[in-house]
Design a protein that fits this description.
heterodimer; A: 239 residues; mainly alpha; 75% helix; B: mainly alpha; globular
Amino acid sequence: MKIFNKIIPNYLLFRSIYLLLVFLILLGFFLILSIRPQYLILFFLLLALSSFFIFPTPYEKIFADFVVPMLLMASRLLEVRANALINNIDEIDHAKFELEEAMLASPHWVYHKGFNQRLREGQRHFLIRVEQTCELLLAMSGSLPTEFLSKKHKQIEHAISQSSRLLQTLARVISLKKPEIIVEDWLEELNEIEKYFYKIVPTDISIFAIDSKYLQVAEFIQSLKDLRQLLLKMVQSIR
Amino acid sequence: MKKIIKKNLQTCLTSLNQFQEILFLLYRQRDYHEKIFFYEKIIQMQNRKILEHILLIKKSNSVAFNILHRCYELFLKLSALRYRLLNHSLLEVCEGELQHVSINLSNILLCIDIQQSDALENSIFALEALFQRVLKVILPDPNIFAFFIQTLFEINDLKISLQANCYENF
C-alpha cells in the first residue's frame, strides 16, 4: 500500500475516483434525460474544479516528503563525522554524496511566486535553514589537530551527536510522528570547548602569520555554533 | 567521449564562477537580511546547478571531480559569511577589494588569465591588509571574516591542481 501511495498519492487517487463518479452520473443524466452536451461539459468542468477544494493538495505532506531525506542525510553525515574525528574519513565522502543527492531533490517550488500564500512564508523560511545547514555540513573541515582533540574529543563528539539527534527529531516532527524529547543544555558544552581552545591559542587567531591549524579549529567551533543556531531557528519555526 | 568530458568540465567551472559572482555581489549589497527569500532562491538554484554538473563529472573523471568538489566545498565555506554576518553594510569599506577578488577568481575559473597567477593572491593580500587595518576594528566578530580570508587563500592554493587536472583537458 505504501509503494502504491508513493506512485499515486492519496489525494490524486481520491480526486480521480471523484471525477470518474461525476462523469458516470453526468453520462447517466445525458442518456436518460437527454441533457444538452454543452450543459453537460459545463457541469463537468465545475465539478472538476470543485474536486480541488474537496480533496486539496496536501502541500505540507509533499514538502515533508522532500525535506525529511535532507534532514536525515544531514543527521547521518553528522554521525559519521562524530565517529571519524580520529579515525578514517572514507565514510564521510559517502555520507556527503548521499546528502548532495538529497539536496538535489530539494523542493524548490516553494520559492515560486504562485505558491500557496498561507504556507509559503513558513516553508520558505524552513527550507532556507535546512539548505544552509546542509551547506554548512558539506563545508565543515574533515580533520582536526590531534593535540586539540586529545583533550576535548569526548565533548566535541557529544556536541556533534547532540545536533544529529535534534535533526532526527526535526525530521520526525515534520513527518508528523511523535518526537523524542531531548532535555539538555545546548550552549554550555560549546562554550566550554571554545574557552579551552582560546586558552591554548598563543595569540590572536586572525593574524594569519600564526599556524593555520588554530584558524581551522576556530572555524570548526564556529561551524558547530552556527549549526546550533540554525537548528534552533528551525525548531522555532515549527513551534 | 573526450568532448563530453570537456563540455562537462567547462559547464561546471562556469557554474562555479557564477556562484562566486553571486556571492560577491551579495556581499556588496546591504539588503540580504531584508530580501532573504530573493537571494536564497538565486543561491540555491545555482547550488543545485553546480551539484548536477559535479555529479556528472564524478562518472567520467574522478581526479577532476575531487578537485572541483573541493572547490565547491570552499565556495560553500565562503558563502557562510552571508548568515554569520548580521550587518552587511559593514562590508561597504572593502567593496572594491571584494570586487577585485571576484574578478580574479573569475579569470581563474574561466581560464582567461591563468598566466597571471599572482593576481588573485595579491587581491587577497589587499583584502587581508584592509581587514587588519579597518575591518578588525569595526566588525563585531572579526574571526568570521578571518575565516573568509583563510578560505580565499585555500582556493588560491587549489589553483595549481585546477590548472593541472581540469584545464589540460581543454
